[in-house]
Amino acid sequence: MGVRGLHWFVTNACPEIAKEQHVRAESYMVYNVLSGGEVECSNTLEDEHDTELPGQALIFCPARQHIYSILLESAKDVQGTSPVIKEWFVYPGNCLQQPDLVQPKQLPGGTPGLRSLWLSRGPEAEKQRHHTFLACFQLQDIAEDLQTLEASVEAACSLLIYLTLQVDSLSLEDLHAFMAQALCLEGKSAAQLADLQLPQVDPRAVQLGSLFVRGLCVLLMANSACGFPFRMEDLMPWRVFDGKLFQKKYQQAHRGCSLHELLEGNEYWLTKFQNLMSLIFKACSAKGRNIQNRQRLNSSVTERRERVAGFYFPNRGRTQSHPYSYHHQNSECQWRGPPTPGYPPEAQPSGLGYRSRHRPARGQRFQLAPRWPR
């Protein structure tokens, strides 16, 4: 089914709801998928020389495939095939010369339709929305454990579990830093955060922070697609993340600081930290993921400061495209470009491509991360 079929789908299934949410900035990418079958995210903040961390576009591709399946469940053809989504997502090695063709992927246990998720009311409907949201990130098996948490903490835990399962190089120290800053953020005023001084900035921590915030964008997209099981404000980054505070906790964790110091001597935070980390370990262990200690010494920070981790705009000043091509015969997407270091070929997502020149067409705007409503 092409764009015409998608337009028919929008005209006949929840058109006003999707349009109103889009106009009010209450959803993220949903209307773009429904109306045109094409989305883009043409900027990122990551170090293309860091071979341990895959590109953000690659890490969150499995979750996006599940979200596309929800949005396009009613748009399948007679053979039961959903329309393919064109993604213009940036990552190292992708020159944006052509889009990645991403096939929607059914959720475990089946994918409910939009009418059921968006229009149904009552406790069972709310439960279905929440379950479907977690299924987008393969977390439906621990839905009962997660549902006992306050909404913003549940969102942060869900994202950290997903990242840990997707990124093998994520260490115990990294998780400690993420969780500690999320909890300590509750007791910090805006003035305290503004006055926070850092002796140095670690590029890897910058990239991890950017990865986490990009993950919140995916949570927002899933929340919109599933009929808002969470309030939008519960998924806003200022509820669970601050860049400078994360830098501080990251450096403390990798220096081997005690949990008591990491949680600033607050016994309530320490107890909550241990309970949440137990939940993360339980979820990861069930999937066969072992979380390892891996302290990064100060000397590595100094070495890494020689590499600038900044905005990565592909093909700036380059004229050639990569000659590599990868296509897995059983893959649901086509990926064009060199294999990403540290990411197995079979896990490479579909052909995310870059436009050859990094200039928007007339009337086109690059899509940044969502405008966070305040």
Strand and helix map with partners:
Blueprint lengths: L2 H10 L2 H9 L6 H7 L1 E4 L14 H4 L1 H11 L13 E5 L10 E3 L11 H6 L3 H13 L7 H5 L3 H16 L5 H13 L5 H6 L7 H23 L11 H4 L2 H12 L4 H4 L4 H20 L11 H7 L20 E2 L6 E4 L38
Q: Could you explain the architecture of this structure?
A:
Helices cover 45% and strands 5% of the residues. By secondary structure, it is mainly alpha-helical. It has a five-stranded mixed β-sheet with strand order 1-2-3-5-4. Strand 4 and strand 5 (333-336) form a beta hairpin. The protein is globular and about 55 Å long. The two termini are 38 Å apart. The model is unreliable at 1-13 and 299-374 (pLDDT under 50).
Shape: globular
> Helix proportion of residues, in percent?
40-55%
| Poorly predicted sequence stretches spanning 5 or more consecutive residues | 1-13, 299-374
Order of neighbouring strands in the sheet with most strands: 1-2-3-5-4
Distance between the termini: 38 Å
Instruction: Spell out the helices and strands N to C.
Output: HHHEHHEEHHHHHHHHHHHHEE
How many β-strand runs?
A: 5
Largest sheet: 5 strands, mixed
| Strand residue percentage | under 5%
Q: Which structural class best describes the helix and strand composition?
A: mainly alpha
Annotation field: number of helices: 17
Give me the Rg, rounded: 21 Å
Q: What are the salient characteristics of this protein?
A:
374 residues; mainly alpha; five-stranded mixed beta sheet; 17 helices; globular; disordered N terminus
